[in-house]
Amino acid sequence: MEFLSYLITGISLGSIYAIIALGYTMVYGIAKMLNFAHGDVIMVGAYVSFYVTMFAGSNLLGEDPSALTTGAVALVSVLLAMVVCTVLGVVIEGLAYRPLRQAGSLAVLITAIGVSYFLQNAAQLLFGANQELHPVVSGQLTLFDGQLRISYVALLTITACVVIMLGLTAFTGKSKMGKAMRACSEDRGAAQLMGINVNATISMTFAIGSALAAIAGVLLCSYSPVLQPTTGSMPGIKAFTAAVFGGIGSIPGAFLGGLLLGVIEAMAQAYISTQLSNTILFAVLIVVLLVKPDGLLGKHVPEKV
Q1: Domain total in the chain
Q2: CB contact burial 35-50 (16+ within 10 A = b; e otherwise)
């Protein structure tokens, strides 16, 4: 039962990585850029959710809150976090990345790093020191006469990840905007000649990716006992690793890469060493990329000359 418990923990942690990786892979697949500020958008979403829950809890819930009222506050905090992060993602794209649309990849990369540090320092000035977290979703499901315990947070995280992945797959495959995104991903110039508004399409991509980052930030708060301005940095790097692992630009690849990364990390912490888990994680990535340079589900795209 221990192995099954570690496996479920890894899948739930990997689900958070997968949600973050979906934002990375959408932006890269369509805008062909790496938004390294994505992890800090996660942090902003976590802070918004935390403060909404804290203030609403102190003003509305009282001494003996009902489960219904608590759930409503949690839902409102998630929705507000999504709204704030969506607006933030669109603003970042419009102010920092759109003027560099024709610039080299190095300029865009340096700008992304600059935006990341700006958000971290702004959060330090606004929110100050570490905040202790008290997750709204608590409790656990007990199976096999108490031998296996699964937290409701883990079940919620896995369910949210699957629903988001299926929803994104349907959106990009069936909707008009999704088809425009796929067209921009294939050939941005040809898409523009066909009447597609490339700027609006890329802005929508950032909006969706940032909304996903807000959801990931809220879920991450349930696993991390402390919220700080650098909260999104390491999960962001791991999620980027997951996107590369699965094949960056592929939605199923980001999903698969996130789950595998979470399972590898959980198993490494349980059976090898908690201190070496990150080392093992990136070592596995290196080995996979040596065998499959485009990732597990990535497609090799020949360079156009």
Answers
A1: 1
A2: bbbbbbbbbbbbbbbb
What does the pLDDT look like over 249-283, one tens digit per residue?
Answer: 788 888 999 999 999 999 998 888 888 888 888 88
In this prediction the pTM is 0.89
CA 270 to CA 221: how far, in whole Å?
22
Q: Rounded to an integer, what distance in angstroms lies between the CA atom of residue 31 and that of residue 205? A: 8
Q: In this structure, is residue 285 part of a structural domain?
A: no
Which residues span the domain enclosing 132? 32-235
Closest to 40 in 3D by CA, of 117, 152, 150: 117
The answer to whether residue 203 is domain-embedded is yes
Is residue 71 a contact partner of residue 212, using CB atoms and an 8 Å limit? no
Residue 229 lies in a domain: yes
- Whether residue 266 is contained in a domain is answered as no
Contact 128, 228 (CB under 8 A): no
